[in-house]
Amino acid sequence: MPFSLDRSRLLQQRAESLIPGGVDSPVRAFRSVGGDPPFVERAEGAYLFDADGNRYIDYFGSWGPMILGHAAPSVVSAVQAAAAKGTSFGASTAAEADLAALVMQAVPSIERLRFVSSGTEAVMSAIRVARAFTGRNRILKFEGCYHGHSDALLVKAGSGVATLGIPGSAGIPMETTQFTTAIRYNDIGEVKKVFAKHHGEIACIILEPVVGNAGTILPQPGFLEALREICTQEGTLLIFDEVMTGFRVSLGGAQALYGIKPDLTTLGKIIGGGLPVGAFGGRAEIMNLLAPLGPVYQAGTLSGNPLAMAAGITTLQALLDGGDDFYDALAEVTSRIAHGVMDEAKKAGIPLCMAGVGSMFTWFFQSGPVHNFEDAAKSDTQRFGQFHRGMLERGVWLPPSQYEAAFVSAVHGDAEIEATVAAAREVFATL
Ligand SMILES: Cc1ncc(COP(=O)(O)O)c(C=O)c1O
Ligand SMILES: N[C@H](C=O)CCC(=O)O
């Protein structure tokens, strides 16, 4: 059967008449890679199935959460059992503390934690509590890092903002971003300059400790250590946004991998096992400023939702049980996929470089190296788009932007590696 997206196209047209751009999040629209986005009907293991009957190996895993693969039987059973008891109470359940305890077991820098419904909310709330704790307003972030879509954090953001090539967002008053400073990632000299200019004013540095939203960019040796030292000296809080890297790059996230202890951490994605969730946490003396204990207001009708808690508990328990062996196996499969495709690019004479850690990675269409967003933006995005479409037609669904990370799950294996490398070989021959 020749590849067709006829039904998806019709569904997209219908969606466009009802929903702006036909999507509930811009990155889903395939604007930077062209072509029609497939409409998903169901998913199982490492695969997505669309409305036209096409099957795809999934390399974006709902943008990170699906580390156990789609519809993992243990997660589905836990969610079904929780749903049978009621889908939301707006009152506390034991499951919230159960999940909080599992998170803290893996991420010891978190002494107190609160659940919210998205990564955006987690970051927004962490910034508020950091400002309250320090009595300062300014936040320092890095170009190409994405911390959700709250007003103050879209300045020079990655992900869809970078993909669409827009500077931030309309509808945000200048006054709201006046305290946001965005500088180059991996450049400690720039960080020092900002502290010299704004001495005593900076509430927090927030960053993706491994960037995923400009494509994958690794911290250079010493960068995270230097940030920790500066923050400690200056009375500034260090916030690791581990919404993507938490439970992804290692059980304890990037902070465990690189041995750095942030003051606050934001989480999302994997800790909800594919259901809507976010969390922020850190030192008790900071987190205890939250109402009802303290003066920082933060709330949520569906926060700690019982279905999300059930999916999260089951997922984290599997990761804790699997331990280092689980993460080593995942990294090994990822490395075979990532390097297998790199080898094919080399044979085809196509400049391609790769950055990755554990089970997240990006192929940049350039010779590299990529240390910051400016470097990532040198990629041949047109060629990336051609590659993306070619792979999709051959049953491999990559994240539809050069400025996003790909993810591998525990149920990707030999068959998926071979099929992916073979598809890349064919596509490279057409570029
Ligand atoms: C690092 C990071 N922070 C924050 C967010 C925002 O999370 P959400 O989309 O759940 O609001 C995302 C993903 O979107 C992310 O990757
Ligand atoms: N890069 C984003 C999150 O990690 C992609 C998810 C989205 O914005 O829809």
TrEMBL record:
Any one biological process term the GO annotation gives: protoporphyrinogen IX biosynthetic process
GO molecular function, one term: transaminase activity
Modified residues (N6-(pyridoxal phosphate)lysine): 269
EC category: isomerase
Keywords: Cytoplasm, Isomerase, Porphyrin biosynthesis, Pyridoxal phosphate
GO cellular component: cytoplasm
Compartments reported by the entry: Cytoplasm
PANTHER family reported in the protein's UniProt record: GLUTAMATE-1-SEMIALDEHYDE 2,1-AMINOMUTASE, GLUTAMATE-1-SEMIALDEHYDE 2,1-AMINOMUTASE 1, CHLOROPLASTIC-RELATED
Subunit structure: Homodimer.
Protein name: Glutamate-1-semialdehyde 2,1-aminomutase
Organism of derivation: Terriglobus roseus (strain DSM 18391 / NRRL B-41598 / KBS 63)
Gene responsible for this protein: hemL
